[in-house]
Automatic annotation (TrEMBL):
Record InterPro entries: Metallo-B-lactamas, NDM-1-like, RibonucZ/Hydroxyglut_hydro
Designated name of the protein: Beta-lactamase domain-containing protein
Alphabetized Gene3D superfamilies for the sequence: Ribonuclease Z/Hydroxyacylglutathione hydrolase-like
Domain Metallo-beta-lactamase: 2-200
Domain of life: Bacteria
Originating organism: Streptomyces davaonensis (strain DSM 101723 / JCM 4913 / KCC S-0913 / 768)
Amino acid sequence: MPCVAVVADDAGSTVIDAGQSPGHARLVQSAMAGAGLPAARRLVYTHHHWDHTWGACAWEVEEIVGHQTGAELLAAESRRPWSHEYMEREMAADPRLGPSFRARARAMPTWDDFVVRPPTRTFTDGLTLPGGVEVRHVGGGHAPDSTVVAVPDPGVMLLGDCFYPPPFHLREPGPAGEEIDLPLITALVAEGFDWYVDSHSPPWRPPSP
Protein backbone atom coordinates (compact mmCIF):
# COMPACT_ATOMS: atom_id res chain seq x y z
CA MET A 1 0.00 0.00 0.00
CA PRO A 2 1.20 3.54 -0.61
CA CYS A 3 1.90 5.93 2.22
CA VAL A 4 -0.92 8.13 3.51
CA ALA A 5 0.27 11.01 5.70
CA VAL A 6 -1.72 13.09 8.17
CA VAL A 7 -0.87 16.65 9.20
CA ALA A 8 -2.95 17.23 12.34
CA ASP A 9 -4.41 20.64 13.02
CA ASP A 10 -6.96 21.74 15.59
CA ALA A 11 -9.14 22.99 12.75
CA GLY A 12 -9.09 19.56 11.09
CA SER A 13 -6.42 17.30 9.67
CA THR A 14 -4.89 17.55 6.20
CA VAL A 15 -4.51 14.08 4.68
CA ILE A 16 -1.84 13.62 2.02
CA ASP A 17 -3.12 11.12 -0.55
CA ALA A 18 -6.41 9.30 -0.20
CA GLY A 19 -5.33 5.67 -0.15
CA GLN A 20 -5.53 3.06 -2.86
CA SER A 21 -9.14 2.06 -2.21
CA PRO A 22 -12.08 2.91 0.03
CA GLY A 23 -11.03 0.02 2.30
CA HIS A 24 -7.54 1.46 2.63
CA ALA A 25 -9.00 4.88 3.42
CA ARG A 26 -11.13 3.40 6.18
CA LEU A 27 -8.05 1.78 7.74
CA VAL A 28 -6.40 5.22 7.87
CA GLN A 29 -9.52 6.78 9.34
CA SER A 30 -9.62 4.12 12.07
CA ALA A 31 -5.96 4.74 12.89
CA MET A 32 -6.58 8.50 13.07
CA ALA A 33 -9.48 8.00 15.46
CA GLY A 34 -7.44 5.60 17.58
CA ALA A 35 -4.65 8.17 17.84
CA GLY A 36 -7.08 10.94 18.79
CA LEU A 37 -6.32 13.01 15.69
CA PRO A 38 -8.84 15.56 14.39
CA ALA A 39 -11.08 14.37 11.58
CA ALA A 40 -9.91 15.04 8.03
CA ARG A 41 -10.71 18.48 6.68
CA ARG A 42 -9.02 18.18 3.28
CA LEU A 43 -7.19 15.76 1.02
CA VAL A 44 -4.09 16.65 -0.97
CA TYR A 45 -3.13 14.50 -3.95
CA THR A 46 0.57 14.12 -4.68
CA HIS A 47 -0.45 12.95 -8.16
CA HIS A 48 -3.34 11.35 -9.99
CA HIS A 49 -2.34 7.66 -10.00
CA TRP A 50 -4.98 5.25 -8.75
CA ASP A 51 -3.14 4.06 -5.64
CA HIS A 52 -3.08 7.64 -4.34
CA THR A 53 -6.61 8.69 -5.27
CA TRP A 54 -9.03 5.75 -5.35
CA GLY A 55 -9.73 5.99 -1.63
CA ALA A 56 -11.08 9.53 -1.94
CA CYS A 57 -14.73 8.48 -2.20
CA ALA A 58 -14.52 7.18 1.39
CA TRP A 59 -13.44 10.54 2.83
CA GLU A 60 -15.83 13.29 3.92
CA VAL A 61 -13.77 16.45 3.44
CA GLU A 62 -14.32 20.10 2.61
CA GLU A 63 -11.95 20.07 -0.36
CA ILE A 64 -9.59 17.94 -2.40
CA VAL A 65 -6.45 19.75 -3.50
CA GLY A 66 -4.51 18.73 -6.60
CA HIS A 67 -2.58 20.00 -9.58
CA GLN A 68 -4.56 21.23 -12.57
CA THR A 69 -3.05 18.60 -14.88
CA GLY A 70 -4.04 15.87 -12.45
CA ALA A 71 -7.56 17.25 -12.25
CA GLU A 72 -7.95 16.89 -16.00
CA LEU A 73 -6.55 13.35 -15.98
CA LEU A 74 -8.78 12.28 -13.09
CA ALA A 75 -11.83 13.78 -14.77
CA ALA A 76 -11.11 11.49 -17.71
CA GLU A 77 -10.54 8.53 -15.38
CA SER A 78 -13.87 9.18 -13.66
CA ARG A 79 -15.68 8.57 -16.93
CA ARG A 80 -14.25 5.07 -17.41
CA PRO A 81 -16.54 2.13 -16.51
CA TRP A 82 -14.34 0.67 -13.80
CA SER A 83 -15.02 -2.98 -13.00
CA HIS A 84 -13.08 -6.23 -13.04
CA GLU A 85 -14.61 -7.05 -16.42
CA TYR A 86 -13.58 -3.71 -17.87
CA MET A 87 -10.00 -4.15 -16.71
CA GLU A 88 -9.85 -7.67 -18.16
CA ARG A 89 -10.85 -6.26 -21.54
CA GLU A 90 -8.27 -3.48 -21.29
CA MET A 91 -5.48 -5.91 -20.37
CA ALA A 92 -6.39 -8.15 -23.28
CA ALA A 93 -6.05 -5.17 -25.61
CA ASP A 94 -2.80 -3.95 -23.99
CA PRO A 95 -0.95 -6.54 -21.87
CA ARG A 96 1.43 -3.86 -20.55
CA LEU A 97 -1.47 -2.68 -18.36
CA GLY A 98 -1.31 -6.00 -16.48
CA PRO A 99 0.78 -4.98 -13.42
CA SER A 100 -1.34 -1.89 -12.75
CA PHE A 101 -4.74 -3.37 -13.45
CA ARG A 102 -4.15 -6.60 -11.54
CA ALA A 103 -3.10 -4.53 -8.52
CA ARG A 104 -6.27 -2.45 -8.85
CA ALA A 105 -8.38 -5.59 -9.00
CA ARG A 106 -6.80 -6.91 -5.77
CA ALA A 107 -7.46 -3.60 -4.03
CA MET A 108 -11.13 -3.46 -5.03
CA PRO A 109 -13.14 -6.50 -3.88
CA THR A 110 -16.30 -4.52 -4.61
CA TRP A 111 -17.18 -1.51 -6.75
CA ASP A 112 -20.22 -0.51 -4.71
CA ASP A 113 -20.44 3.28 -4.39
CA PHE A 114 -16.98 3.70 -5.96
CA VAL A 115 -16.26 6.89 -7.87
CA VAL A 116 -13.04 8.60 -8.93
CA ARG A 117 -12.94 12.06 -7.37
CA PRO A 118 -10.97 14.81 -9.16
CA PRO A 119 -9.66 17.73 -7.10
CA THR A 120 -12.13 20.41 -6.14
CA ARG A 121 -9.34 22.99 -5.67
CA THR A 122 -6.52 23.16 -8.18
CA PHE A 123 -3.20 24.96 -8.55
CA THR A 124 -0.48 25.26 -11.18
CA ASP A 125 2.74 26.10 -9.32
CA GLY A 126 1.98 25.85 -5.63
CA LEU A 127 -0.02 27.09 -2.69
CA THR A 128 0.12 27.29 1.09
CA LEU A 129 -2.61 25.66 3.14
CA PRO A 130 -3.67 26.47 6.72
CA GLY A 131 -1.10 25.37 9.25
CA GLY A 132 1.77 26.32 6.94
CA VAL A 133 1.53 23.20 4.76
CA GLU A 134 3.25 24.02 1.45
CA VAL A 135 2.12 22.25 -1.73
CA ARG A 136 4.45 22.51 -4.75
CA HIS A 137 4.36 21.09 -8.26
CA VAL A 138 7.62 19.41 -9.33
CA GLY A 139 6.52 17.26 -12.29
CA GLY A 140 8.99 14.68 -13.51
CA GLY A 141 8.86 11.41 -15.41
CA HIS A 142 6.62 9.47 -13.03
CA ALA A 143 3.59 11.72 -13.46
CA PRO A 144 3.17 15.19 -15.01
CA ASP A 145 1.28 16.44 -11.95
CA SER A 146 3.74 15.16 -9.31
CA THR A 147 3.57 17.36 -6.24
CA VAL A 148 5.59 17.51 -3.03
CA VAL A 149 4.15 18.61 0.31
CA ALA A 150 6.41 20.39 2.79
CA VAL A 151 5.60 20.69 6.47
CA PRO A 152 8.24 23.16 7.72
CA ASP A 153 7.43 22.43 11.36
CA PRO A 154 8.48 19.63 12.10
CA GLY A 155 10.73 19.65 9.02
CA VAL A 156 9.17 16.96 6.84
CA MET A 157 8.84 16.77 3.06
CA LEU A 158 6.34 14.32 1.56
CA LEU A 159 7.53 13.29 -1.88
CA GLY A 160 4.79 11.11 -3.28
CA ASP A 161 6.33 9.15 -6.17
CA CYS A 162 7.93 12.18 -7.81
CA PHE A 163 11.41 10.72 -8.41
CA TYR A 164 10.26 7.20 -9.33
CA PRO A 165 10.40 5.85 -12.88
CA PRO A 166 7.19 6.03 -14.92
CA PRO A 167 4.58 3.31 -14.40
CA PHE A 168 5.45 0.05 -16.18
CA HIS A 169 3.12 0.53 -19.14
CA LEU A 170 4.57 3.98 -19.86
CA ARG A 171 8.28 3.17 -19.60
CA GLU A 172 10.68 3.31 -22.51
CA PRO A 173 12.33 -0.04 -23.30
CA GLY A 174 15.70 -0.71 -21.68
CA PRO A 175 17.32 -0.02 -18.29
CA ALA A 176 17.10 3.76 -18.70
CA GLY A 177 13.32 3.54 -18.44
CA GLU A 178 13.64 2.13 -14.91
CA GLU A 179 15.98 4.78 -13.49
CA ILE A 180 14.97 7.19 -10.75
CA ASP A 181 15.04 10.94 -11.38
CA LEU A 182 18.34 11.54 -9.61
CA PRO A 183 18.58 15.31 -10.33
CA LEU A 184 15.09 15.87 -8.90
CA ILE A 185 15.60 13.94 -5.67
CA THR A 186 19.07 15.45 -5.23
CA ALA A 187 17.61 18.96 -5.48
CA LEU A 188 14.85 18.17 -3.00
CA VAL A 189 17.27 16.65 -0.47
CA ALA A 190 19.46 19.76 -0.82
CA GLU A 191 16.58 21.78 0.66
CA GLY A 192 17.61 20.36 4.02
CA PHE A 193 14.47 18.90 5.54
CA ASP A 194 15.00 16.65 8.54
CA TRP A 195 12.83 13.85 7.19
CA TYR A 196 11.69 12.76 3.74
CA VAL A 197 8.78 10.44 3.07
CA ASP A 198 8.21 8.87 -0.32
CA SER A 199 5.12 6.80 -0.90
CA HIS A 200 6.47 3.26 -0.93
CA SER A 201 9.35 3.28 1.59
CA PRO A 202 9.77 3.96 5.31
CA PRO A 203 10.54 7.59 6.23
CA TRP A 204 14.21 8.40 5.79
CA ARG A 205 16.74 11.07 6.69
CA PRO A 206 19.34 12.44 4.28
CA PRO A 207 22.94 11.48 4.94
CA SER A 208 24.94 13.82 7.15
CA PRO A 209 27.30 16.20 5.28
